[in-house]
Amino acid sequence: MEQIDRALFVKEKKYAYMDHPSPIGFNATISAPHMHALCLELLQNHLKPGIHALDVGSGTGYLTACFAIMTGPEARVVGVEHIPELVEGSIENVKASKAAPMLESGRLSLHVGDGRLGWPDEAPYDAIHVGAASSKVPNALLEQLKPGGRMVIPVGDEFQELRVIDKQTDGSVKEWCKADVRYVPLTDKKEQLNE
């Protein structure tokens, strides 16, 4: 997180380093720094050089850029966000950051898509982070998680738990709760924009 300047990824620069979620437009937020740190810590053993990682609800691209720095030039890091304007902005944010070489080389990519469906074109993934709460773990994401991989996802409606899901080498899943959390919902674009 120290290598990627959060101020490049927030709308209000004066709030860049405050430890709370900040609005990024389109009824979305960038998570508080302590939540990003927790998710990176939970995924760190799966964010190794050469891996495939997926960031669902990539928003401004901050955590996707952190993934790129942690995993190095041989990795493949994918961000998926369903608001096109956020994807456009996230590309510009990453270009201004230390993760720019990964974007330029194509090792980091940011896409418009329904995060609940993951990004099957690049699957399977060693690490999946979901930045919005789902009432249940989407099957598509479980299917795209590589055996031996880990997913971190907030699960629940009004009250949520940050769940850690480890896919075993035999394909079975072990799941545990790390913390009680509060995230915006993982939803479709129309519902998010109140259209």
Automatic annotation (TrEMBL):
Any one cellular-component term (Gene Ontology): cytoplasm
GO biological process entries: methylation; protein repair
Gene Ontology MF terms in the entry: protein-L-isoaspartate (D-aspartate) O-methyltransferase activity
Protein name: Protein-L-isoaspartate O-methyltransferase
EC number(s) given by UniProt: 2.1.1.77
InterPro entries in the cross-refs: PCMT, SAM-dependent_MTases_sf
Residue ranges of coiled coil: none
Family stated for the protein in its record: Belongs to the methyltransferase superfamily. L-isoaspartyl/D-aspartyl protein methyltransferase family.
Species per Swiss-Prot/TrEMBL record: Ceratopteris richardii
Reactions catalysed according to its record: [protein]-L-isoaspartate + S-adenosyl-L-methionine = [protein]-L-isoaspartate alpha-methyl ester + S-adenosyl-L-homocysteine
SUPFAM superfamilies: S-adenosyl-L-methionine-dependent methyltransferases (SSF53335)
Record keywords: Methyltransferase, S-adenosyl-L-methionine, Transferase
